[in-house]
Amino acid sequence: MELLALTAGWVIVGFMALLGVLILWKILQGSIDLQYLVSEEDGQASLSRFQFLIFTFVIAMGLLVIILKTESFPPIGSDVFGLLGISAGSYVASKITQKTASPSDKAQKE
User: Most exposed: 1, 5, 24, 105, by fewest CB within 10 Å?
Assistant: First the structure.
């Protein structure tokens, strides 16, 4: 049973590595445009998108370092989920405020 779990783990790691290489290849070819990764459709920078991206990467990298050091998956505390939730909530709130802005507000920005 342990051999099956180890094999399944390596298959998942291999699949994720291939997926990462494919995405990187598409980015280098220009098929995936990262121009609006942290900006809105009109080209203005979005603090909520940037915050969401940074929080996600910081937590993912921290988790990866812990997994590599301890060779086991650590329990994830509610504080980590709270940080991600706050970041995601601010992104959603900014989207809601953009959608509910009156037409006169949008005209003033332009």
Answer: 1
In angstroms, the CA 59 to CA 41 distance is: 27
**C-alpha to C-alpha distance for 55 and 86, rounded to whole angstroms:** 10
Which comes out higher in pLDDT, residue 78 or 109? 78
Would you call 32 helix, strand, or coil by DSSP?
coil
* pLDDT band at 102; cut points 50, 70, 90: low
* φ, ψ at 74 (rounded to 5°): -80, 160
Count of residues in the chain: 110
What pTM did the predictor assign?
Answer: 0.63
Q: Rounded to an integer, what distance in angstroms lies between the CA atom of residue 67 and that of residue 79?
A: 18
CB contact set of 16 (below 8 Å; sequence gap of 6+): none
Q: 25 or 103, which is more confident?
A: 25
